[in-house]
Design brief:
The structure is a homodimer. Chain A has helices at about 130-145, 160-170, 190-200, 220-235, 235-245, 260-275, 280-290, 305-310, 325-340, 365-380; strands at about 15-20, 25, 30, 35-40, 50-55, 85, 90, 95-100, 150-155, 175-180, 315-320, 345-350. With about 375 residues, chain A is α/β, with parallel strands linked by helices. Chain A has 10 helices and 12 strands. The relative contact order of chain A is 0.13. Helices cover about 35% and strands about 15% of the residues of chain A. Chain A folds into 2 domains: about 15-185 and about 295-380, 3-Layer(aba) Sandwich (Rossmann fold); about 190-285, Rna Polymerase Sigma Factor, Chain: A (Orthogonal Bundle), CATH 1.10.1740.110. At the A-B interface, helix 3, helix 4, helix 5, helix 6 and helix 7 of A face helix 3, helix 4, helix 5, helix 6 and helix 7 of B.
């Protein structure tokens, strides 16, 4: 809870929403006849209207990337460490737009919203959305905000995948592409983890084939398991060791199935609290978007060819202890960019935090991130 | 199904069982008043009775380590690749004993057996057993088989932990300790994976607090999830890539939640088939035995001091792509053994198979394993 707002906070923010009445054709072949996009903005659009930055969120993210909704808020937005006056994404220089993607559960059209002109929830009928669908919907949002282009599109993890797609789909409308802790596509192991998470949710008897809202139930157990599993992949083995070691919660073994080790307690807590704030159908959709992401697919499985379309400058960041999307995966992106003769800066940050590092204000990371964004601002 | 038995197979084996009427005090403080141990033997005990080898099984293993129960069997025992005439554990030279550990589900006393003098299943009332409890029960089995000692105790993964405990607890009765793909104790990440597996089982409504057998139900979904998750940790990312890549089962994306990728299909199959052959309460017990294993605990957290008690020669093997118990963890064991001035041979096998490599007849692995065991046999 911020008793007073720090000068480097964007402060109190007001969530906004736009209704889109133009049908959106999705990759799955279905069409969303109309939809809403929830978003927030931080900073001011300049007179030239050329300082707009788009933030793309990851699996469990949303439009609330920075600031507080009220002085009673316990926590700021999910990327408050990087967004604010004087921060890496400096809101005294940039006009920052952050949205909840389609299929999300924080105000944009998604499984937990009602179908148009209906009293029924979308639930499992919400179509499978892809990274490209999101980019298309973000492009429409850009137009509605009367912006010609983004001076930068920025995202970590699944967010970084949206950035890559932006650079390929709309090369003229993205000047800088910041791809953080991402991969050019998921590995079989990544897909496998997602599949276990989906099975956990879908096999929960309270899932009701996705119609749980109508049944006034929530697949708590499944969503909790999915989140616990996710957390293991977000943290490095070392980070877990540093954080919990093998510390016993009660100082001794229970010789039962209650919590023995701190790490168990942490995971259960993370799982439980996630259930209160996230929708299970959205979780399923997000994991599918991850699995399906593969921009090289329609370019003969050649990422170089795919990236040849891009004209943005790239800034790629990876973290040494990230085993979900390891530095090796970021280097694949960098190599393809170089082969496609694109301008790219690559930084591998020494960090113990695993995949989660992209959300942590690690000094070296924040320094290079800030420097890059300063250079972006200086060209405006 | 073996149409004819290969000359390097132990052939048709007959499962055996022994009843133990002497109460066994467990680490948890409870006592098993009486219990059964299911076991198998391969090869012949020599006249000097000094060629006996004990095989310790891992999480989902059992007494059936080699050979077939009948000519209709589709698969041999779980370590048939290493046990047989002329194989690494050469049954023409060794008398091999393999058992189902207490708490198991293949004939030894465990949750799926009845309590003594009762019609009730043990179920969740079966006490938490530890690696040391197992070693103590294996020691009693040794005595009942009228053996003075083992010329070698051998195990992979959780089996390797039993080997270490044997060397510490009964230094005079184990001449060679073969510790394969193990760790001196679980990491926080290892514990975290086990905890998610346990939560999957325990949160399944069909678990009925462990009393599912009496309810004529099985926590299928939970056990399936636990196994799917286990499988991810048994395979390396590379092994998964080699095995499945991102191959689509139907050649195209489904844009639904059916199986898209081969790896999903594989995991679901592994999960489903495991449910048919394994007991959920046993799975819980095995994961707790793993979590609790830490032989250094009562030696002031000093593994060197713990291992100073040992007099066996050690043979430690790890596999490069094993990320469950990485080579680094095996090197911790080796370093402690060297610091304790023990004789130790260490081999790090180049292998793509992940943790599962210890069950795979990789030529280099089988060569060094065979050589070591030949040297053991030659001293008899």
């Amino acid at each position: 809870m911020p008793e007073t707002l720090s000068p480097d906070s964007v402060g109190i923010v007001i969530p906004q929403s736009l209704h889109f009445a133009d049908p959106l054709l999705l990759e799955c072949g279905k069409t969303l006849a109309q939809y809403d996009i929830a978003y927030e903005t931080y900073g001011k659009l300049n007179a030239a209207r050329n300082n707009a930055v788009l933030i793309c969120h990851a699996l469990s993210g949303d439009q609330h990337a920075a600031g507080y909704y009220s002085m009673d808020d316990k926590k700021p937005g999910w990327w408050d460490s990087a967004i604010g006056p004087g921060k890496a994404i400096d809101t005294s220089r940039f006009f920052v737009v952050s949205l909840n993607n389609l299929g999300g559960c924080k105000g944009s059209s998604g499984p937990n919203t009602k179908k148009p002109d209906s009293d029924k929830y979308w639930g499992p009928d919400f179509p499978i959305v892809t990274v490209r669908d999101w980019v298309n919907s973000q492009h429409r949002l850009m137009q509605r905000l009367e912006l010609d282009s983004w001076c930068a599109v920025i995202g970590g993890s699944l967010g970084g995948m949206q950035v890559m797609q932006w650079a390929i789909e709309y090369p003229e409308q993205i000047k800088h592409a910041l791809v953080i802790a991402a991969a050019p596509k998921l590995s079989a192991q990544n897909i496998a983890f997602n599949e276990v998470a989906r099975q956990a949710i879908q096999s929960d008897p309270d899932f009701h084939d996705g119609h749980y809202l109508e049944q006034h139930s929530i697949p708590r157990r499944g969503l909790m398991l999915a989140r616990m599993l996710g957390h293991i992949t977000y943290l490095s083995d070392n980070a877990m060791r540093e954080k919990f070691g093998r510390e016993l919660r009660e100082g001794k073994l229970s010789f039962g199935f209650d919590v023995d080790f701190q790490v168990e307690s942490y995971l259960r807590y993370q799982g439980r609290s996630f259930v209160e704030r996230f929708d299970a159908n959205t979780y399923l959709l997000m994991t599918k978007a991850l699995d399906y992401f593969d921009p090289a697919r329609e370019y003969n499985d050649n990422l170089v060819t795919a990236l040849e379309r891009a004209s943005a400058r790239f800034f790629v960041v990876s973290f040494t202890s990230d085993w979900r999307f390891s530095p090796e995966r970021s280097r694949e992106i960098v190599k393809a960019l170089l082969a496609a003769r694109k301008q790219v800066s690559y930084v591998e940050i020494e960090a113990e935090h695993g995949h989660d590092a992209f959300l942590v204000p690690i000094p070296h990371y924040m320094n290079v991130f800030s420097s890059y964004m300063k250079s972006v601002a200086d060209t405006l």
